Amino acid sequence: MEKTKIIELLQLRGEERNVLFGEASKVKDEIVGRKVYFRGLVEISNICSKDCLYCGIRKSNDKVIRYNASDEEILSACRFAWENGFGSVVLQSGELTSPAFVRRVDYILKQIKKLSGNELGITLSCGEQTRETLRRWFDSGAHRYLLRIETSNNDLYNKIHPKTKKHSFEKRIEALNLLRDEGYQLGTGVMIGLPFQTVEDLADDLLFFKKMDIDMCGMGPYIEHKHTPLFEYGNLLKPKHERFDLALNMIAVLRLLMPDINIAATTALQAIDTAGREKALTVGANVIMPNLTPCKYRKDYLLYEGKPNLDEDAGFNNYIKTLAEYTGNKIGYNEWGDSLHFQKNKK
Ligand code: SAH
């Protein structure tokens, strides 16, 4: 698909957009099946050494109460996932590289494998790490990794990150290559509707995913957070519903571009539209990440304002039923739901 064609598709509205959605949905059904896989999301710590200008849990935000969920809390959330037929969990955190953190994640990975008799699949989303760390975690049971490039435009990347070595675009790309090298299923993604971002940038993002030959993608609308430096550029933002619409178009076009990858229906979609994730599942997404973080920590993992699901998931099982009915998807109970793209590449 040419860039001009992608730009055109990203801007579709109304009936024409429904045609795009219909095609994406058809491709999904044919290639990865009319199915949705669950990953129980456990936000294990909000302590972060980075200072990304958009992120609510950035190091310099001293209004955040920092936490480290205990091993028992994390493992009991994972046990819940396993007992309820989720095939996998995602462990996410702020970015730390200390030996203590590396050791701790390693220990938790081994314990998750143990408690589930090796049945739970594990995705990590803990930022940029060294080759040694990635290898160690892989050996202990992690097999998928999410590390968003945030934007594939180097200039824009520099506008939304501090100008330090720790936050360099080149390092981010290198980190993605390391993940691939070390055998992980590679997941990346971008924020949609950032200040200074154009539709051309978004088209380039999709082409970047294709070029990087990724296995999984998680992308969602950018949502401003009062206590971050990027908040200052609120006047440059599209209205939230437009960012949301653009995110759905991005998902649909990506499904056409990369029919056999896993695409997540992300939480940020739900922050704008209560049925946002379900809508995404009808236009090409096939993975959902219900939040299993212990409730007492959820309000402290506020990447952006208005992040949903801060209270107890009352009626969770009802939600699952509604989800299946609303989207017409089967639920991949007890399945890892690995990226088909990855499996094909391995052969
Ligand atoms: N520290 C890890 C993961 C935690 S942040 C890492 O760097 O990968 C997970 C994702 O949340 C980020 O990659 C970013 O894309 C998203 N995010 C952060 N702030 C956001 C905001 N204000 N609006 C929307 N998404 C945001």
Features:
44% helix; TIM Barrel; eight-stranded parallel β-barrel; 13% strand; 14 helices; 347 residues; alpha/beta; binds S-adenosyl-L-homocysteine
> Number of folding domains?
1
CATH topology: TIM Barrel
Helix percent band: 40-55%
Which overall shape is indicated by the principal axes computed on the Cα atoms?
Answer: globular
Structural class: alpha/beta
Mean pLDDT: 96
| Strand proportion | 5-15%
What characterizes the major β-sheet?
8 strands, parallel, barrel
Low-confidence runs:
none
Ions, cofactors and other bound molecules: S-adenosyl-L-homocysteine
Strand order of the largest sheet: 1-2-3-4-5-7-8-9
Question: DSSP helix count?
Answer: 14
CATH class assignment: Alpha Beta
The H-and-E topology, N to C, reads as: HHEHEHEHEHHEEHEHEHHEHHEH
The span between the termini is 25 Å
Architecture (CATH level 2) name? Alpha-Beta Barrel
User: In total, how many beta strands?
Assistant: 10
Radius of gyration: 19 Å
Q: What's the CATH superfamily, by name?
A: Aldolase class I
Architecture overview:
The chain has one domain: Aldolase class I (TIM Barrel, Alpha-Beta Barrel). 48% of the residues are buried. The chain is globular. The mean pLDDT is 96. α1 packs across α8 and α3 packs parallel to α4. It is α/β, with parallel strands linked by helices. S-adenosyl-L-homocysteine (SAH) binds next to loops. The site of S-adenosyl-L-homocysteine has 17 residues, from loops.
